[in-house]
Amino acid sequence: MADAAASMRGTKAVPVKREWSVMEGGFPFEIVHIGEPANNMSAFHWHDYMELSYIEENEGCYEIEDRVYRVAKGDVVVINGIERHRVTFKGDRPLHETVIHFDPKLIWFKEDPTMEYGYLKLFKHDRLAFNNRPELGEETREKVGRLFGEITLEYQGKKLFNELLIKAKLLTVIALLLRECRAEAVDAGEFLSKRNQMDRLKRILAHIEGNFGGEMGLESTAAHFHFNASYFSDYFRKNVGITFSEYLARIRVREAIKLMTEKGLGSTDAAFECGFNNIASFYAAFKRVTGMNPGGYLRSRS
Fold first, then answer.
1. I need a labelling partner for 219 at 20 to 30 A (CA). Which of 114, 184, 204, 256 fits?
2. Average pLDDT over every residue of 186-193
3. SS3 letters across 74-138
4. How many domains in the chain?
């Protein structure tokens, strides 16, 4: 499944659960947004791996579950593998950040007692007592910023033993954050329950991704997953951040763009191929998602 945040920029973002190919490699670690602005997201997304973000420039907002954090230069944001989140900022002042993603197994293996599980306490936390944007002292803020820079250089340089240095510096960052934030480990049963909730949402989004071209609506999708339609509508908006109909429209517009730009289909054929019942609804959705009509959008890309 495509990365929700990266699939469409700005208001064009289409949220789905991110599938991370790096997780399949030998070193489960990556850095994104190096020198590039963050994605301005219209809806929530989530992923199985851990995330640490360091704000490099400008201001923005992180929405994590039911909390909103304003972020600025020097702030650090901590997100675990079950927290829905999105990033927003003013379009004329894009948020620049360095974002680290890593699999927990980079830090801890059950099979290897020499690895330190305590570091994961920063991520498997009790939300009631945790601030995803830790209030850091100036000295710690400077140290963390410097370490993010050093990790980035090692990541880009790919020199001999860079993986060892990346891991050592990452553990140092986590230790510094643990010193200054309240991170009480959450009960394992509660963490598993939340994980199961995210898995259910993953199945719902996968179903929409696989069937958007047909006759799909809120009521039929709710029935497919044994939801009451009214409850499902509230559930979807709460967990994804936009309504079911808007989510479906954004996916259809995204796929229509692919058909027009990659396969040369006309807008009418692309619209019906992607599940729109009439051209008027397609044009309205396209303008809402991209800010322009199909012809203008195609001309802007030529």
1. 256
2. 59
3. CCEEEECCCCCEEEECCCCCCCEEEEEEECHHHCCECCECCCCHHHHHHCCECHHHCCCCCCCCH
4. 2
Residues spanned by the domain of 137 = 4-188
Spatial CB neighbours of 151, under 8 Å, sequence gap ≥ 6: 31, 100, 166, 169, 170, 173
- Rounded mean pLDDT, 102-107: 84
Residue 54 exposed, middle or buried by CB count within 10 Å (0-12, 13-18, 19+): buried
Same domain flag for 140 and 175: yes
Among 183, 180, 98, which residue's Cα sits nearest to residue 140? 180
Helix axes 138-157, 162-180, angle to 10 degrees: 160
Residue 111 lies in a domain: yes
Say if residue 131 is in the same domain as residue 245. Answer: no
Q: What phi and psi values does residue 50 have, to the nearest 5 degrees? A: -90, 155
8 Å CB contact between 2 and 255: no
Residue with tokens 């329950």: 193
Of the candidate ranges 5-14, 187-196, 200-209, 231-240, the one whose mean pLDDT is the lowest: 5-14
| Same domain, residue pair 168 and 218 | no
- Check whether 113 has a pLDDT greater than 60: no
Sheet arrangement for strand 96-102:
29-32, 96-102, 50-57, 76-79
Query: Count of CB atoms within 10 A of residue 86's CB?
Result: 22
Distance CA 129, CA 136 (A): 16
| β-sheet bridge partners, residue 87 | 62
Q: What are phi and psi of 103, to 5 degrees?
A: -80, 140
What predicted TM-score, i.e. pTM, was given to this entire model? 0.65
Residue type, 249: A
Q: 161 lies in a domain?
A: yes
Whole-number Å distance between alpha carbons of 4 and 39: 10
